[in-house]
Design goal:
- This protein is an all-alpha fold.
- It contains four helices and no strands.
- The longest helix has 50 residues.
- The chain starts with 14 loop residues before the first helix and ends with a helix.
């Protein structure tokens, strides 16, 4: 059998376990949450919801276009041809990766929004019937 480690003051419980036992779980969970929109009922604008994937798509498209320019320079330019041949495909692939990630992110956010709306609706129904 293992003996639990004793804290420096001689008690059997660690300081973390005492802290966890005395804290209020709901308030701790609410304070430590990353997304406050889960706990508040304020509606967010479309830009607040979709700004991150839009930025990723924009940056991906810009890097992809830059890669296209660099790759086409390798066909036209005669000097530094090896540099263009090496950097062009790298920028093409990086830009395409960001573009696809952003485009896939948008439907995921839409699905989460629908699930959140259903969850809020079910919560309101539950509270309506059980609080009578």
């Amino acid at each position: 059998m293992e003996i639990p480690p004793k804290s420096p003051d001689g008690s059997e419980r660690s300081p973390q376990s005492k802290e966890l036992m005395t804290s209020n779980t709901a308030s701790t969970l609410c304070i430590s949450s990353r997304s406050e929109s889960v706990w508040t009922s304020t509606s967010r604008s479309k830009w607040e919801i979709y700004h991150k994937p839009v930025i990723v798509v924009s940056v991906g498209a810009a890097v992809f276009l830059f890669g296209m320019v660099i790759t086409s320079l390798s066909c036209i330019e005669t000097r530094n041809k090896n540099v263009y041949k090496m950097c062009g495909p790298a920028f093409l692939s990086l830009g395409l990766m960001l573009l696809v990630c952003g485009l896939v992110w948008i439907p995921i956010i839409r699905k989460k929004q629908k699930q959140r709306q259903k969850s809020q609706f079910l919560q309101s129904l539950k509270s309506f019937f059980f609080n009578r």
